[in-house]
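Recall that a protein's primary structure is simply its ordered list of amino acids. Everything else, from secondary elements to tertiary packing, is in principle encoded there. The following example makes that idea concrete.
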Amino acid sequence: MIHVGCCGFRRAQAVYFQNFPLVEVQQTFYKPPRVETARRWREEAPPGFTFTLKAWQLITHHATSPTYRKAGLEIPPDRRDRYGMFRPTPEVMEAWERTREIAEILEAPIVVFQCPARFTPTPEHIADMRAFFAQVERGGLTFAWEPRGEWPEETIVALCQDLDLIHCVDPFIRPPVTKGTAYFRLHGIGGYRYRYTDADLRRVLDWCRGFETAYVLFNNVSMWEDGLRFLALLNEDP
């Protein structure tokens, strides 16, 4: 099974639903939508449509991140160390419950934890990550973890095995260390403005064949066009 979509709705939702079977919701990273909004999305989506979503940044990103300002989130300086970086604090756990609530409404199979480059493989960060995933209520969800920066492969392997995580990657940068299900986020070779060639898309298809299930999410400037071309390639493939 290969599921294809974009990171975010790149057209009006009605148009998007007509063209793609999958979307990765980005709004949940900045600030989760209202419950009523999530219910409306689920009701308006066609049968069989799949939502995945990014975990709220209060879980993964430090309170000084510019993405907090973009979302209009103001955290008092004396409380900033209680947010982000998988710290097992009440604030982070509450952010997870908000994320999980939306995931359940959308019937999402996967939640993506995208980490910033400043989340490095220090003993403190690894310990906090282990504590967080040991405490959260998954409710049947699968977790995909996208580390950034320089992480030793053996550390990624150990954490994915111990915490039951999918290693989320851009396959043009590195292959995943986990098997069974692939979660590919295609950010553009060398940058967001990159447009994938036909040869690039065939490589992605070849990589997908090594997994039982693959989620392919385009996140580049031409994600709409490249995603549709990849769907066409799937339809042509014997």
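Residues 19-236 form a domain with the TIM Barrel fold (CATH 3.20.20.410). Residues 25 and 53 are 4 Å apart (CA to CA).
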